[in-house]
Amino acid sequence: MIREERIPLATLTEDQLESLYAHIDSLTNTPVLRTCLVPGCLRQFDAMATMAGSPMRPEWSAAGWSMLGAGSIFPTGGHICPDHKDLVTSHWPRRLELPSGRWSVACPCGWSPVPQRWHRLVAAQWEQHLLTETGALPAAPPVTDPEHRLPLAEHTEESLAELYDRLWDAEADVPELRGLARACSVGYSLTVPALLGAKTALENLRTRITVDSRDWAADKLDAFLWAVLVGRNCENSDSDHVHNDIDCAGDQPLGTIADQHSIPTDQTMQASQHRWWIANAIKAVQQIEDNGIVTEIQ
Fold first, then answer.
1. Distances (CA, A) of 75 to 41, 68, 142, 179
2. 26-70 per-position pLDDT tens digit
3. What is the top-level taxon of the source organism (predicted)?
């Protein structure tokens, strides 16, 4: 190891002493800078100073910075400055390995690039996507655009290989998509009839209770069943609806019945939640019927 030449104390000057201190500081307090992963962003923070104390410069502070985990398209992760935190988190890139053995990106916004044979290439595509979102680059035309269909004379071995890769990707996706469609169809055929039957049973039970001559408020259990199956409070969801004693039951009857039978607050809230789930389940099935999604089996 080559050592710095030692200057005797008798000949040491003030400038040499200051230079010695500066050299020691530069070796012992060397910043470990991390740059924002957004292309074109030059903001940095000092990772070492973040762990040891305050940074050498205020602009190297780690306040507000975030980290992108190794599960993204960046194998070693990355760092995001406060200015771009919202941008990156709204386009958080998740690496996808396709059935064909190629790689792509799943972006929360729905963007998906042309699959690549080497997974590190998708990082550059995602960076270009970010620049497009910020307006730094113009939007790229879709890959299915006729302008992307090169004539034979302009094709190269690389472009032809890419074309075949796209074909093989599509062929590999077909069985998976067919399996998904089949599973959805089977699930639909099993679920919808059950929902229709449950809706009919709940509506018949509700009608049976409402036409019964007994006082459903006199007994604690009866009051609970009425609250869940029929509903004590008004269920009008119109934004301009105002509770009154003529058109609706208002929003107090459930609380009044609960006080009458000394029902605890948590049980009262539970009854209200049960009623909400039943009422909205019936509305959901009714919407399926109204939209004509359900067809009778011949």
1. 20, 10, 28, 31
2. 565 567 788 898 888 999 888 777 665 666 677 788 888 888 766
3. Bacteria
Contact 228, 275 (CB under 8 A): yes
Sign of CA pseudo-dihedral 257, 224, 236, 269: positive
Range of the domain at 282: 191-290
Is residue 177 in a domain? Answer: no
The dihedral sign for the CA sequence 131, 133, 136, 141: positive
148-206 pLDDT, tens per residue?
A: 677 788 888 887 887 787 787 777 777 877 877 788 778 777 888 888 888 899 989 98
Amino acid occupying residue 207: T
Q: Rounded to whole angstroms, what are the CA distances from 104 to 65, 140, 158?
A: 27, 17, 19
User: ∠ CA 163-101-145 to the nearest 5 degrees?
Assistant: 30
User: CA 170 to CA 161: how far, in whole Å?
Assistant: 14
Number of domains the chain contains: 2
